[in-house]
Amino acid sequence: MSSRVSFREKLGTYLNASYPLLWIQTHEENRVVTDIAGEFLAPSADSGRKVRTIFEWDSVRGMSKMEANKARTPIPDLIAVKKLLEHIEKSVGDHQLYVLKDFHPFFQEPVVRRAFRNMVGKLKSKSTTIIFVSPVYAIPEELSKDVQILEFSLPDDDGLKNRLEFVQRAAEQSKKPGTNHDFSISPEILLKAIEAGKGLTDSEAENAFTLALVENKKFDRSFVKSVFDEKVTHLKKSGLLTYIEPDATFDSVGGLDGLKTWIRQRGQAYLPEARAYGLPYPRGMLLCGVPGCGKTLLAKATSAELGLPLFQLDVGSLFGKLVGETEQNFRRVIQTVDGVGSCILFIDEIEKALNRSAVSGQGDTGTSSRSFGTLLSWLSDHKTPVFVIGTSNNFTILPPEMIRKGRFDELFWLDLPTKIDRVSIFRVLLKRYKRDAARFDLNALAEGSKGFTGAEIEQAIISTMFRCFADRQREFTAKDLLAELAATTPQSKINEVDITNMRDQAKGKLRMVQHDGQIAEVSEELRAISIS
Description:
By secondary structure, the protein is of the alpha/beta class. Helices cover 45% and strands 14% of the residues. A 9-stranded mixed sheet has the order 8-10-11-12-9-13-16-14-15, with helices on both faces. Strand 2 and strand 3 form a beta hairpin. The C terminus is likely disordered.
C-alpha cells in the first residue's frame, strides 16, 4: 500500500469514526487538500465514502467552499478568526470538512482554544471534522485529548515519478524550434532519479528535477547526481540530518574481518533478487566498544561497501527548548528518513543523548521519555530500507530497551585490536601515508603496540612523521615508530578499570565473532567482535 493510499484510508477511518479535530503536520498543504478533495468531495460509488461538503480557510483569502470542478466559491467576510469561529459554530451541518491552514498562531488566544472546546460535542454529533494543516505541531494543552495527529508522508515513488514526468513534459513543450535536445528518460535513469529525489516534498522534488535538467540539459547520470546534491542541500537546511561523503572503504579498515563478512551478507538484502526471495531489509547494527577502535570509520566504509548514502543524525540536536519542539523534531526526522529511501542512518555516540538519565523523563514533563519511545518504536517497526548504525563508547549506560534484539539486527562489541588486527591496521595506515608497508617489520610494530586502539596507532605514525621531518626531513623507520609507541601510554592503561568493567559486563551477554568470521553463540543481547 502506497503512503498516499494509506493516508486516505486512515483519514477515511477517522471521519467515519466522527473524530472532531485532526492535525496534519506538513509543508505540502496543496497536496493535502488535493488528496482530501479527490477522496471525499465526489467519491466513487464503490469507495464506500460519504460525500463531504468541504470548506477551506486561510488568514488571507478567508473561507471558500470547494466545488467538484475544483473551483472555489468564496464565503464573504470570514477572514477574521472570531467571525470564522462564530460561523462554524452556527453553520455546522452533517458530514462537513473544514480545512484550516496555518491556524497554529491563533491558538495563543485563550478564547480561541475555548471556542474549539465548546464545538467538540457538536462536531461529533454531526460527523463533521475540522482539519488543521500546518508545518508545525502546536496543539494547545486544552485540546490535546480532542485532537488526533494524522501523518502525511513525503511523496512516494509514484508521486516523484509524476513530478519527474511533469518536468519532462514542460521541457518538451518549452523546446525551441531547431534545437536537438533529447529529453527522453531511460528506465534506469527514471528509477535512479526517483531514488535521488526521495526525502523531498512535492515542490522540492519538482524544483530539484527542473534545476538538474537546466544544469545538465538531459536526463542522464549527471542529472541524477544533481538531484541528489540538491536533496542534500535541502536536508542540510532542515538542520536534522547531515550528509557524510564516504571517504573510506573496507580496505581502509584494518581487522574486523568477521564484522565485514556480516555487513556484506546484510548488504545483499538491497539486491533485486532479495525482494523476489522475500528477504526483509536489515535494520542495522549497534557498535559498542572502546573509543578509537574504528566504529565511525567502519560506518563510513559500510556506506561505500553497500553503495548507500550516509546521513548522520545528532540526536542531541532534536531536543528543543520550546514546548512540543522535541516531539516535533523527532517526528520530522523519522518522516524524512523514511522518505529518503535506501540509506544509512548514522547515530554516533548514541549514549550521550539517549542514556538512562537523559530519557527518564524526570524534570521535563516526560518529553524525553515520549520522544525516546517514538524512536524505539520506529527502530522496531519501520519497513523502509534504512540501515541504522549506532555507536556507543559506553553501552552500560544505555537503557535496556535500546540494547535488545529487534531494535537492531545485531549489537557488536569491538574490543581492543588483537595482534593480527594491529598488523592489518599498520599495513592500512602506512599505505594511507604513502609508505611501503613491506619496508617495516609489522610483527614487531604489532607487538610494540599492544593495548593500542587504531586511532592511537595512527596518531603514533603521525607524531613519528613530524619528528622525523623536523630531523632533516629523513625517512622514518620501524625503529622510530617503536620509540614513539614506547613513549605513549594508551587509553587501555589510563582507563584500564573502566575498560575492564565494560568488557566484564559484556561477557556472558555477547555472541562472539572469531577472526575467520565464524560465530559462536553466548547470549542473545549483544554480539562481540573478538579478532584473534
